[in-house]
């Protein structure tokens, strides 16, 4: 290990041989303030870089002491540009006789997946069609205008108000999908324009911070269904999912009647996620991290909303309409985003390769014109998780290649009917609750 410079510096004089490391040495560097990772067999000390990482310190830190090659390729569109930032962090490389992957991982699967990704690149499946996303934005804006016209032409009665709330909720749902595309940098080649577009959609059309969403959502993609690394499944002590139900039962923890969580889920899950949890978390993030530009974008949404509907309803009525829209939108968000994840394996870190970890945590929902539109192509969760920067209009084209890879290696490629996928959320919550009760009573 001689010749290693300070963290963040080069490994030594230019042209000097790189120090070599073994996995047993690398494994110990997965602590706060001491993070190493491996990319393309090169070892990097990211300890001082994590707080400057554009995707957030948690995202890159979750790969500490691991081979992060496929995650690196999955999240970055311009690899040569990003490698310039990695160069000063280089401290060595894996010893020649060390495997590229640590632990009992399937090297052939990793090789085949990388070949599949290369095939997708050769097929230009990572190139977006701006017209596709322009059409999506157009139909979102059309729904916003239609909702206002209903109130303007028919008056603020119950029927037009209800229809307007439903249309606005659908508009919000489709805005989630569009900002999701923009957040993964799949629309524009220039990230500056991509981020500006996301700030408009996320801020002006939704009232949330683009930085907050990316900080939260990228962690989900990096380590889906892993406790304390994926915020979407770290729901204890309100809900127990997967392995947490056994842990809470053995430790005799009973903050809520978890054997009935599949019932109280209807009261505090879908109705309140975006209305309460997201609103509070989003505002706290902007204030603590001093994201003043995001705060102004979000404020512009509320200004427009109240300016548009206050003449019809007054301030109390606008607040009621806003709550109704958020509750309806929240139902869409919970059911559509979680039907692909909650019924799957949820637990502690298992340090799998990229393809295996994504496949274990995701499933698809049957393809149809309605499902593609209503779900924002999130019915193709397997393809989306394997290739997060791929524009969604190409999921159908890459899906046969993914199915072939899964068949070759005996991996599950699960596709469900839409209603079955929704019902599986409740079945999974009940199963976890029953598991908790059994462990609680008999351990």
Which structural class best describes the helix and strand composition? mainly alpha
| Strands, count | 7
* Content of β-strand: 5-15%
Low-confidence stretches: 1-9
Largest sheet: 5 strands, mixed
SSE pattern, N- to C-terminal: EHEEEHHHEHHHHHHHHHHEHHHEH
Task: Give the termini separation.
Answer: 48 Å
Count of helical stretches: 18
Mean pLDDT level = 92
* Percent of residues in helices: 55-70%
Shape: globular
The strand order across the widest sheet is 1-5-4-3-2
* Multimer state: single chain
Please give the radius of gyration in angstroms. 23 Å
Number of domains: 2
Write up what this structure looks like.
By secondary structure, the protein is mainly alpha-helical. It has 2 domains: 1-103, Flavocytochrome B2, Chain A, domain 1 (Roll), CATH 3.10.120; 105-443, no CATH class. The protein contains 18 helices and 7 strands. The strands form 2 sheets. Strands 1-5-4-3-2 form a 5-stranded mixed beta sheet. A two-stranded parallel sheet has the order 6-7. A hairpin with a 2-residue loop joins β2 (30-31) and β3 (34-39). The longest helix is centred in the last third of the chain and has 47 residues, at 292-338. The termini are far apart.
Name some characteristics of this structure:
single chain, 443 residues, mainly alpha, Flavocytochrome B2, Chain A, domain 1, 7 strands, disordered N terminus, lipid metabolism, Fatty acid desaturase 3, Fatty_acid_desaturase, fatty acid biosynthesis
């Amino acid at each position: 290990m001689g010749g290693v410079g300070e963290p963040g510096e080069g490994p030594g004089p230019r042209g000097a041989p790189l120090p070599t490391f073994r996995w047993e040495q690398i494994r110990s560097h997965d602590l706060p303030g001491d993070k190493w990772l491996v990319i393309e067999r090169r070892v990097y000390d990211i300890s001082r870089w994590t707080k400057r990482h554009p995707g957030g310190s948690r995202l890159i830190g979750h790969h500490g002491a691991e081979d992060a090659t496929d995650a690196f390729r999955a999240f970055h569109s311009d690899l040569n540009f990003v490698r310039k930032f990695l160069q000063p962090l280089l401290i060595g490389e894996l010893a020649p006789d060390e495997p590229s992957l640590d632990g009992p991982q399937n090297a052939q699967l990793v090789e085949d997946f990388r070949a599949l990704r290369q095939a997708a690149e050769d097929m230009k499946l990572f190139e977006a069609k701006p017209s596709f996303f322009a059409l999506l934005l157009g139909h979102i804006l059309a729904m916003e205008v239609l909702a206002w016209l209903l109130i303007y032409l028919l008056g603020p009665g119950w029927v037009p108000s209800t229809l307007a709330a439903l249309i606005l909720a659908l508009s919000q749902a489709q805005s989630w999908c569009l900002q999701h595309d923009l957040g993964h940098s799949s629309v524009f080649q220039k990230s500056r324009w991509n981020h500006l577009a996301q700030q408009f959609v996320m801020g002006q059309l939704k009232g949330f911070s683009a930085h907050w969403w990316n900080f939260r959502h990228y962690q989900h993609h990096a380590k889906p269904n892993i406790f304390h690394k994926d915020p979407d499944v770290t729901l204890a002590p309100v809900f127990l999912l997967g392995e947490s139900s056994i842990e809470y039962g053995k430790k005799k923890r009973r903050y809520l009647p978890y054997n009935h969580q599949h019932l109280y889920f209807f009261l505090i899950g879908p109705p309140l996620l975006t209305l309460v949890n997201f609103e509070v978390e989003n505002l706290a993030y902007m204030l603590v991290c001093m994201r003043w530009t995001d705060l102004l974008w979000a404020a512009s949404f509320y200004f427009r909303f109240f300016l548009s509907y206050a003449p019809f309803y007054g301030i109390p009525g606008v607040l009621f309409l806003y709550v109704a829209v958020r509750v309806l939108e929240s139902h869409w968000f919970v059911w559509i985003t979680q039907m692909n994840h909650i019924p799957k394996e949820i637990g502690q870190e298992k340090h799998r390769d990229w393809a295996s970890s994504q496949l274990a945590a995701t499933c698809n929902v049957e393809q149809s014109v309605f499902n593609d539109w209503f779900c924002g192509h999130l019915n193709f969760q397997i393809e989306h998780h394997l290739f997060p920067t791929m524009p969604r209009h190409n999921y159908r084209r890459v899906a046969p290649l993914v199915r072939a890879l899964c068949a070759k290696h005996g991996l599950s490629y699960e596709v469900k009917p839409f209603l079955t996928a929704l019902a599986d959320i409740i079945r999974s919550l009940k199963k976890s609750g029953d598991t908790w009760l059994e462990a609680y009573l008999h351990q």
